[in-house]
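Annual report, structural modelling task.

Input specification for the iron/sulfur cluster complex:
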Amino acid sequence: MSRPPQIGFVSLGCPKALVDSEHILTRLRAEGYGVSPTYQAADLVVVNTCGFIDTAVAESLEAIGEALAENGRVIVTGCLGAKGNIVRDLHPSVLAVTGPHACEEVMAAIHTHLPQPHDPFVDLVPPQGIKLTPRHYAYLKISEGCNHRCTFCIIPQLRGDLVSRPIGEVLQEAERLVQAGVRELLVVSQDTSAYGVDMRYRTGFWKGRPLKTHLSSLAAALGELGIWIRLHYVYPYPHVDELIPLMAEGKILPYLDVPLQHASSGVLKAMKRPANTGGTLERIRRWREICPDLTLRSTFIVGFPGETENDFSRLLEFLAMAELDRVGCFTYSPVDGATANQLPDPVPEEVKQERQARLMELQATISADRLRRKIGRSLTVLVDAIDDEGGAIARSSADAPEIDGIVYIEDGADLPIGEFASVRVFESDQHDLYGESLRV
Ligand code: SF4
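The model returned the following structure:
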């Protein structure tokens, strides 16, 4: 039997890009292509790029250069591909360039440069598709693109306006993943709260049941699958309030990743974000009243053009009052093509750095304090790995993979990876919890 044509695959970028990679890999395997772990054994290499910030652009261009040097036959896809001629200008010998979310175009380019094998072993493809995450968790992308026009962001230019996936299709994918052993689904998109807006919340079907294409119905239906459901990139639209009771009842994880970006109305206006910080504080208070275990994560940008010391103080005051559990903070950096680049009054680099450090210092005490309140409690965790010292690295409902902290179980060496376990917390620091296993 002859060897099937081999494709090397380099996947860079965010979870949304990862999902694109998974779709392409699934198609490749379905059509009988092999996936090569090395450049040398590959007949052609696909590089899925990121083009969001300058460092990501540089990393992507370097990855393309490396693939060309090591293999020579390269197809480029992903966000960087949508940014004009940047790829071809530096690497004119690439075989093809596509934008993000372009599985069909990538497959067409592969068919042109490396014809499809004659007899695909379709049966070898697992029904859940090929996953790049560990077997026990997976990202579930519910829409592509974004209707907002935040001035610091070029995602709408790269990916277009919001296009939601049909609710029945999303739920079928979720079911297949659960059947394949996934214990946690991470719902992602550019703007999860807006799910279904583009379809005017049209009614779809799942298992013969009518369901509105809306985040509330999607979350409720996902909550029936009996696994962890975690929501990312949830803007605080009014209907987000409907999700909190689902969290309080344990249907979906009591976790919300809400990218707020700032708290000063002037800066939010310049960013073209909705500006109602007082309202946000009041809603956080109500959410916690309904669901005291709610974990709130957010990200902020400091040093946005025109941000004054006064604006920054508003942000610190907000953080002190909101007591968010997890916070990411970036210094503003101009992105090629973003409208914010034309704004006056840039903030000097050292001021940006200093503000970032002050914000993180304040947040460190808040995060540490919130974690300390968990000492003595019993938690359900999902075991991700066993480390060299014989402890288990696990996560609770408060910890998304890769971005949040962990729960370290000192006596957890024999706990099965990818399964739930119970722990009692005896120590905490700024990011993580430490516990002992509660074996039943
Ligand atoms: S930052 Fe703004 S424009 Fe960019 S994807 Fe998010 S909501 Fe959309």
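The pocket of iron/sulfur cluster is lined by residues 146, 148-150, 153, 155-156, 190-191 (CB under 6 Å).
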